[in-house]
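User: structure tokens for this one?
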Amino acid sequence: MALLMLATPVKAEIDGHGPDGWRVTGVSANDFLNARMGPGTNYPVIEKFAPNERAMQQITCVPFYTAAHFTAMSEAQIKALPPRWCLMRNQSMSKAGWVLQRYITPDNAVAAAPPPAHKRTATSGAVRPAKSNKNTATVQQPASDPLFAKAEEFVRELYERYDLAQLGAGADPLRPPMASNYFTSDIVDYLKSDKLQAHPLYGAQDFDVAIDEPRVDPDQPMLRGMITVNVDFTNFGQPQRAVYYLRADTTKSGAPLRIFRVEHGGWSYP
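Assistant:
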């Protein structure tokens, strides 16, 4: 029974349909929750979250496991796991750091809402708040569909994983073996080659980007099993768009969703 109770929330975190927000728990009203540079007490404290902090976003946790991994483990293996740490950021995205998982809990009072646009820089890979650009107000969403939401989350995760990799907090999703979790094999081969004309996500050699949330194309969200997701951003003040085409990859077990083509203005790959 204990195993089942623990496995259920883990699946919710992994499949993209977990809580809309998280809050701090178990911290005294006159204290703070330390947020560290890495997942462990050997890393320095870089931020502090208030004891009543709410609407927090969970980026990832370590040890990493899916519900399938968790349920396959014995009780002894579960007990042998180190304490779980999660990379969290506050609602305004002005603070981020690693905290012990036992000090956070789903914030059931938070309503689902798209997060603000992000600011990414080529030099540091940092993620900072940015003003939404003009494209945000003009995007009209197609009819609600769980598959469309999954595709948007899939592309959003690609960008977030890349940001984390630049901070040294995970594998680069543009390099093997992580790249195969997001792209079809021909794109993975392309990313390994010397054919790249510009950055695969931003379509430029240099970039200082304010980026909007990934959105399924409002005019043609799906065609013959292909989902189109647009990512609008400004690079050095110039509006640009990356277009991602996704479909089920039947060459892999379970036919998972994968990106099979990307377009950036005047060029595309593979």
